[in-house]
Design brief:
The protein has 117 residues and is mainly α. 77% of the residues lie in helices and 0% in strands.
């Protein structure tokens, strides 16, 4: 997912610049930014190899699904003028669901850390 974030960041900075407006580029950049934050969270979770608790596994899934819902929906929203997919007009509510999944991931990670002490 980290490699995908780098590729999407480069694509947004170089490939999309000519085909979407500035507001759409900002939306794209926000998707990349949050994807990177949560890739680092996933990397951190990978250090719990010997302590694969239910909370750590939940955090992993919440972060992964959060990336797909939050960043994925922002990528689609940013490129809706290019893609012309009809369903993209209705995808806006998916973004907050992704944000909620991120919050649940951080709470799960917090609880795993507290429990592990």
């Amino acid at each position: 997912m980290g490699a995908v974030a780098v590729m999407f960041g480069a694509f947004g900075a170089h490939g999309l610049k000519r085909v979407v407006d500035e507001g759409s580029l900002e939306i794209w950049a926000k998707g990349v930014e949050y994807q990177f934050y949560h890739v680092f969270a996933l990397l951190f979770l990978s250090q719990f190899k010997t302590e694969q608790t239910r909370l750590v596994n939940l955090a992993y899934w919440f972060f992964t699904l959060g990336i797909l819902f939050f960043s994925g929906s922002l990528y689609l929203l940013a490129t809706r003028s290019v893609l012309n997919f009809a369903f993209v007009s209705y995808i806006g509510p998916v973004t907050p669901v992704g944000g909620l999944l991120f919050i649940l991931g951080w709470l799960s990670l917090f609880l795993a850390a507290v429990k592990g002490r």
